[in-house]
Amino acid sequence: VSIEAASIDLTVEGLLGDELTVLSGGRVSTVMQLDTCDVTLDGLTVQDGYTSGDGGGASVTGVSNVTASDCTFQRNIARGHGGAIWFADRGTLSLTDVTLTENSSGDSGGSIFLYDTVATLERVGITNNEAGQYGGGVYLRTKSVLTATDLLVNGNNANNEGGGLFLYAEATSDLGAAVSISGNTAPQGGGVSLGGYYAIMP
């Protein structure tokens, strides 16, 4: 099952939790392609998405607002950026009680790639993801802002820099209580790497 939506409000709710409601790309397509949408996801697993471009699980463009709770993103692949989620163009992303695991990208953002996006993460686990270049767990760039509490970033790998997180080009993060970044690997900056200019990490 795949979802393509543009310029609409969309709510997708699972039945009896994320283990029983699965959206799959069948390893042949991106699971969700969203453009200029307000989207709510609840109680879903998004898995086995594939793209030769960006966003194996979800590709989000336009001024979109996406809220996901009680969801799992797993085993999604992007040959470009954002194995699980690729998010661009001044939108907002809110994740609560979400797990992102075993996703991969050929370039950057093994799990999540944010471009000019405001993201809020609460009770989120980002584990065992891999990026071919930068940001095995999460890659932020170009004025993206990440705010997180109760966040686990563990076991991710980048083949160049930023095994856990990579911040670039005026990207900022505000990491609050109960944030753990450990066990991530990369040739440079196994946990966190700051690149480019004005990358700030309070």
End-to-end CA span: 40 Å
Sheet-strand content, in percent, reads over 45%
SSE topology string? EEEEEEEEEEEEEEEEEEEEEEE
Classify the helix fraction into a percent range. Answer: under 10%
Task: Please mark out the parts with pLDDT under 50 across 5 or more consecutive residues, or reply none.
Answer: none
Overall outline: globular
How many H/I helices? 0
How would you describe what is shown here?
It contains no helices and 23 strands. Strands 2, 3, 5, 6, 9, 12, 15, 18, 21 and 22 form a 10-stranded parallel beta sheet that branches. Strands 1-4-8-11-14-17-20-23 form an 8-stranded parallel beta sheet, with no helix packed on it. The chain is mainly beta. The mean pLDDT is 93. It has strands spanning 3-6, 9-13, 22-24, 32-35, 38-42, 45-47, 50-51, 58-61, 65-74, 77-78, 85-88, 92-101, 104-105, 112-115, 118-127, 130-131, 138-141, 145-154, 157-158, 165-168, 172-175, 179-182, 192-195. Helix content is 0%, strand content 52%. It is globular.
Q: What's this model, at a glance?
A:
With 202 residues, the protein is mainly β. 0% of the residues lie in helices and 52% in strands. The strands form three sheets. Strands 2, 3, 5, 6, 9, 12, 15, 18, 21 and 22 form a ten-stranded parallel beta sheet that branches. An eight-stranded parallel beta sheet has the order 1-4-8-11-14-17-20-23, with no helix packed on it. It has a five-stranded parallel beta sheet with strand order 7-10-13-16-19, with no helix packed on it.
Topology of helices and strands:
Elements: E1 3-6, E2 9-13, E3 22-24, E4 32-35, E5 38-42, E6 45-47, E7 50-51, E8 58-61, E9 65-74, E10 77-78, E11 85-88, E12 92-101, E13 104-105, E14 112-115, E15 118-127, E16 130-131, E17 138-141, E18 145-154, E19 157-158, E20 165-168, E21 172-175, E22 179-182, E23 192-195
Parallel strand pairs: 1-4, 2-5, 3-6, 4-8, 5-9, 6-9, 7-10, 8-11, 9-12, 10-13, 11-14, 12-15, 13-16, 14-17, 15-18, 16-19, 17-20, 18-21, 18-22, 20-23
